[in-house]
Design a protein that fits this description.
This protein has helices at 20-26, 38-49, 67-71, 83-95, 109-124, 154-170, 190-193, 207-217, 276-279, 301-316, 320-323, 330-346, 355-368, 378-390, 394-397, 400-409, 414-428, 436-443, 448-460; strands at 4-10, 15-19, 28-31, 54-59, 74-77, 100-103, 134-138, 176-182, 198-201, 234-239, 243-251, 464-468, 474-478, 483-484. The protein has 492 residues and is of the alpha/beta class. It has an eleven-stranded mixed beta sheet. Helix 6 links the parallel strand 7 (134-138) and strand 8 (176-182). Helix 12 packs across helix 14 (378-390) and helix 14 packs parallel to helix 17. The radius of gyration is 26 Å and the shape is globular.
Length: 492
């Protein structure tokens, strides 16, 4: 079977080919400003390789779902599934060797990052027996591997960046060939971009992006201006899977269409009838206004197969005696899950592993302990993790007072819950106020400055009150619960 893929034609004449076998071993980076033809290039690559290699597409805008009609890709709507389900789907798609489009359309940036990370994590952690080659295409990669922190939570950023780093740095041995596309090289994490050996650079206007593109292609800085003049659909190619010297190629035609193609200019005819009453009509009363409910389309048959795969494995691994056992008491099950979580925290490398990594370890241990494949979803796990990291005693955890503290904590953002409960536990026990270093460890960082900013955030929003005594020791009072810590040195 030939591995030469036709991507279009070279500007000087002749076909522009891509060696698929080489690509699977060396990865690809595509860069181009909006409107440069970047998505068109990815679609051409996907169409040409759809019958040759399994594909997984991380699609933040729903551009590639149309591939399902032509090439039988499974479209998974991330808005309809939990992170635990997406992680399992990432594993099962490799077991069943099904090409998948993960549609993240309609989710905010934080959820897009978390659910993409869960899906990539499932693909990465599949057993060795299923390390078949997979072309993993990530569009708008700067969203999932940002060079700097943005508006998303630190937890989401670290989980997504870790998954993208695994894909590009360690994915090759597991059969994962990363193809990442970005509008801005300057916004893409350097350790992710640096792992690609093949490059397709499209039209670029900003000096910093042109300079980075020229550096990656081994061009002189004065030649970087050429990126401004590239027509739409033209890219400068370099890499072992493409060409040994920089060459400009024009991407060929595609057979499928994007759902979100740009607007088409058409003659405009202003309305002749009066529209003021239509546009400025009063809004309906609040109780009469009903938001239209989104109805999900029926899932394809393959999704049903993937979703039922775990149940089939569980049924195959149990015997009649196990089926006859009495149901597990909910209290005992909760204690068993808490015990597994404590085992995970013992190996937490000082408390600096991200929750997504701990969650994967937790699910594996739950399966070993016979607690099921989906023992706890990600949201419940974050809450259980915050409680476990607080250090509260098992008997105190069942009290009404602690339940009240958890109710307050769970109204906070996910990444702040552990910090609040850590302070609440110290205040409930009248223990010394935790130091900045201890608070930073609970948050999962080495930065004591970040710990102080978190404390300031909690105080500004009236969750805690902080005060110093004459010796510079700090006390923390929990508003609404009537608890206060003993004095503690913030610098120890």
């Amino acid at each position: 079977m030939s591995s030469a893929i036709d991507m279009g034609e070279i500007s000087g004449g002749g076909p522009a080919t891509l060696d698929l076998t080489e690509l699977l071993a060396t990865r690809l980076l595509v860069q181009g400003n909006s409107g440069s033809g970047k998505s068109h290039l990815l679609r051409r690559l996907l169409e040409q390789t759809a019958t040759l290699v399994q594909q997984a597409i991380i699609d933040p805008e729903g551009d590639f779902v149309s591939l399902a009609e032509a090439y039988s890709h499974l479209v998974i709507d991330a808005a309809e599934h939990t992170e635990a389900a997406l992680q399992a789907a990432g594993e099962r798609m490799r077991v069943h060797r099904a090409s998948v489009v993960l549609n993240l359309e309609g989710l905010d940036a934080d959820l897009q990052m978390k659910r993409a990370a869960a899906f990539l994590g499932g693909m990465f952690d599949v057993p060795r027996a299923h390390w078949y080659p997979v072309l993993v295409v990530v569009d708008e990669a700067q969203l999932f591997a940002p060079a700097a922190a943005g508006e998303v939570t630190e937890e989401a950023r670290r989980a997504s960046l870790g998954a993208m780093t695994n894909l590009m740095c360690r994915g090759r041995k597991r059969g994962l060939a990363g193809v990442i596309a970005t509008q801005r090289l300057a916004k893409l994490a350097k350790n992710v971009a640096a792992e690609a050996s093949n490059f397709l650079m499209g039209r670029t206007f900003l000096d910093i992006d042109m300079a980075r593109a020229a550096d990656l292609l081994g061009m002189e800085r004065r030649q970087a201006e050429a990126f401004r003049d590239l027509p739409r659909g033209n890219f400068v190619a370099l890499g072992p899977a493409l060409t040994r010297r920089p060459q400009t190629i024009r991407v060929g035609a595609v057979h499928t269409e994007s759902r979100s193609a740009g607007p088409v200019l058409a003659p405009f005819s202003p309305p002749v009838e009066p529209v003021a009453e239509l546009i400025l009509a009063p809004l309906p009363e609040p109780e009469q206004f009903v938001r239209p409910r989104r109805v999900a389309p029926p899932p394809p048959d393959l999704l049903t197969q993937l979703a039922s795969h775990g149940d089939a494995l569980a049924e195959a691994s149990t015997d009649a005696a196990a089926e006859a056992q009495e149901p597990v008491d909910p209290v005992e099950r909760r204690r068993a899950l808490a015990a597994v979580l404590r085992e995970v925290l013992v190996e937490d490398d000082g408390g600096f592993r991200p929750p997504a990594s701990l969650y994967q370890d937790f699910l594996v241990r739950c399966r070993i302990a016979g607690l099921g494949r989906d023992a706890m979803d990600m949201r419940a796990f974050r809450r259980a993790l915050a409680t476990a990291r607080s250090g509260v005693a098992e008997e105190a955890e069942e009290t009404d007072e602690w339940r009240a503290a958890e109710e307050v904590a769970f109204s906070l953002p996910d990444d702040m819950q552990g910090t609040f409960l850590f302070l609440a536990r110290a205040a409930m026990d009248a223990a010394p106020c935790p130091s900045d270093a201890d608070i930073a460890r609970i948050y999962g960082t080495h930065s004591t400055g970040r710990a102080r900013r978190m404390l300031g955030w909690l105080e500004e929003r009236n969750f805690v009150v902080l005060r110093l005594d004459g010796a510079g020791r700090r006390r923390a009072a929990i508003i609404g619960l009537g608890w206060e810590t003993a004095p503690g040195d913030p610098g120890t």
